[in-house]
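Structure request: Acetyl-CoA carboxylase biotin carboxylase subunit, Azospirillum argentinense.
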Amino acid sequence: MFDKILIANRGEIACRVIRTARRMGIRTVAVYSEADARAMHVEMADEAVCIGPAPVGESYLRGDAILEVAKRTGAQAIHPGYGFLSENAGFAAACAEAGVVFIGPPIEAIRVMGSKAESKRVMSQADVPLVPGFHGEAQDLETLSAEAERIGYPVLVKASAGGGGKGMRVVRAASEFADAVAGAKREAKAAFGDDSVLLEKYLGRPRHVEIQVFCDTHGNGVYLFERDCSIQRRHQKVIEEAPAPALPDDLRRRMGEAAVAAAKAVNYVGAGTVEFLYEDGGFYFIEMNTRLQVEHPVTEKITGQDLVEWQLRVAAGGTLPLMQDQLTRRGHAFEARLYAEDPQREFLPAIGKLVRLRPPAENDHVRVDTGVREGDEVTMFYDPMIAKLIVWDEDRDAALRRLRVALAAYEVVGVTTNVAFLGAIAGHPAFRAVEIDTGFIERHRADLLPPPAPVPDRGLAIAALSVLLRRNADARKARRAASDPWSPWLSASGWRLNDDNHHDLRLLDGDTPRGLTLHFRPDGYEIEVEGRPAIRAERVTLDGETLTATIDAVRTRATVVCQGLDLTILSDGAVWRLHLDDPTARAAEQEGGSGRLTAPMPGTVVRVLVEPGQTVEAGAPLMLLEAMKMEHTIKAPAAGTVSAVNFAAGDQVSEGVDLLVLDVAEG
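Returned structure:
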């Protein structure tokens, strides 16, 4: 076994590998960019070395720099995690040349399976079932168009290299084909350095079922059962579960055996995942991921195995810890991916400081894999994942209850997250009833992403009580420091001359002002919200950011985080955001801004689709922005005339800068 390994990755997967290595008595070396100098994985590792600036091309994708660190620190092997260099055959070859073990499959297996087109040719020869498609080398538009006509629309255009939903387009008509191919090629080139694409028949309502396989250097191969990863948006997985529900046991066995056959067809070694589409009793090979998957913890929970330990033992030349007839599964597990992103804005990644980050308590049923802590920054440079929440119980219904409770307990303040969106999926009747396929999110979009609702009176009352108790605390400090501590002008009790003691507050709920009056009573408070009947609050206490009160006879506990005049309230899984109204500041915010189209996040301008003086209709695409290796289209919010274009293709832009100015047509 190795004495020391280097982890060529960052974030939660680097932390995950370090935990297993530490348990096995293996020392670890972390590499990090300048932006990650204080990152969690850096502090967890036994040693850490900086390898360059923040951009991945200057740090985490620098195979030469990583190998130099391995040589300098005496690391005998490199664990690539997932993403970055994990499926890079060139890096694996460089490791071999340098005499460092690459904890992954053989170079040729990475190369073959890394090409969706070539892997499908090999799978066809191994009698692994395939979706009808085109996997040839020709990339000219004429050939691709002819093949799309042969397959029949709708077709799926996919990047031949890489994964994660990047470089993928669904094309429903021939008139859309050329633009879809161009967009997929641009995205694939940016993400993987390879713009080749393949075509597949687009299945109507398939499920995404994948098989965890493991092979060693002694000719052994097993499958550790299956996972269902059908809940996806933009072809990226959101919630995964194991085992896949409502599948006949015979089908599970046949899929597992086909996956092992696929792995052996390329002389595979180590951990891999063979992905299938399943529909109407048939299953079809999509691709093989030649690495450990993001969702591997659900397999670990149902099998009781540590897959990173398996990786290390196999890479060191050992045999598989268990053979097929020794593997068993128990119970059901879910994994939900928590991201800093805004579901209401087409899941645009969010950046900022994690002002508050409190996961649910971990135990035998709840596991949290993360690479960030409270106070860390989510930056524009890397994947905005905050954590993976994994839950387990004896059956699917029980595990799903665990998931809903754990999501409701997760507290994140400082960046917009998808926690409420995940909770909506976990609570949806169709999800509970296993009415799932890869179109689940789009089909139930109205349920899962309802328009923002006004903050309820209870949320307003909690916010107002928090403001008042903080003012009381500040007043007590002021009175202790004052020359006249009994002056009524230093009181926060709502004292009024010849009037009922009360406080008036105005909170902004988005752009909507909400008025509240808090009346002081001997046993607590009465709170009027916009003239409606008073809410009674008794036994109110504030301990740090935790407010506890009996509101209308119901005991309530909520977290209220203050950032200047901004308030974030977290209560029973709900998140409400309010702002203490400052009329002067509000008036300043409302000045100007009409017709300005700003960058929703930092990124690179890919194409400018209009020019000054051009008239456009509402919804017309104006500019393509690439951020987090995904393309985002800036569209006209209304009909008008473009009066200014402030950036050109290739320009880097910061969040909030004015990209274009549109003179909106009147009427």
